[in-house]
Amino acid sequence: MSDELYPRDMLRTASDIRFAGSLPDAGGHATLDNPFCGDRVGFDVTLADGRIKSLRHQVKACVICQASAALLSAEAEGRTADDILDLGDRLMAGLKQDARPLLAGHPAFDLFTGITRHRARFACVLLPFEALEAATREAEKATS
Questions:
Q1: Closest by CA position to 129, among listed 101, 100, 94
Q2: CB neighbours of 86 closer than 8 A, spacing ≥ 6?
Q3: In whole angstroms, what is the distance from residue 29 CA to residue 34 CA?
Q4: Strands of 28-34's sheet in order across
Q5: C-alpha span between 25 and 12 (Å, rounded)
Q6: How high is the pLDDT of residue 31?
Q7: Among 88, 101, 119, 129, which is most exposed with the fewest C-beta within 10 angstroms?
Q8: What residues does 115 pair with on adjacent strands?
Q9: Distance between CA 139 and CA 142 in Å, rounded?
């Protein structure tokens, strides 16, 4: 395994299961797949006042995608679907530009700096953002 692509911090983060599982009372759920690599990410969310109150993820994916889901889950409480979309867009811009930090205000995401030279892996980082946004949008529809 390449230390550049899979640093120890990423492996440690990918093993964080605090937000793994499902929510029986979820207001929204979405599962998305990356057909190119086989990653699959699902999120269950509940909302309060349009913001994420609680969430759980189901991830069958590479280490990069697992780490991204774990980091995003730790940052998501209190955010809206638009916030999640914005975070994902800014992270993608950081990856494309090889920026430091990758995502201003969120230093934990710098563990993906080794991916900037591997464009095919950007989708692995961003799939959890897309799945969480979709689940949050579904929960918004259910409450409106």
A1: 94
A2: none
A3: 17
A4: 28-34, 39-48, 51-60
A5: 29
A6: 99
A7: 119
A8: none
A9: 5
| 109 in Cβ contact with 102 (< 8 Å) | yes
Counting beta carbons within 10 angstroms of the beta carbon of residue 63, is it exposed (0 to 12), middle (13 to 18) or buried (19 or more)?
A: middle
61 secondary structure, DSSP code: S
**Distance of alpha carbon 143 from alpha carbon 11, whole angstroms:** 37
What is the assigned CATH class of domain 8-143?
Answer: alpha beta
d(Cα 122, Cα 95) in Å, to the nearest integer? 7
| Token pair recorded at residue 8 | 């120890």
Q: Using CA atoms, how far apart are residues 111 and 10, in angstroms rounded to an integer?
A: 6
Q: Where are the domains of the chain?
A: 8-143
Task: Write the pLDDT tens digit of every residue in 66-114.
Answer: 999 999 999 999 999 999 999 999 999 999 999 999 999 999 999 999 9
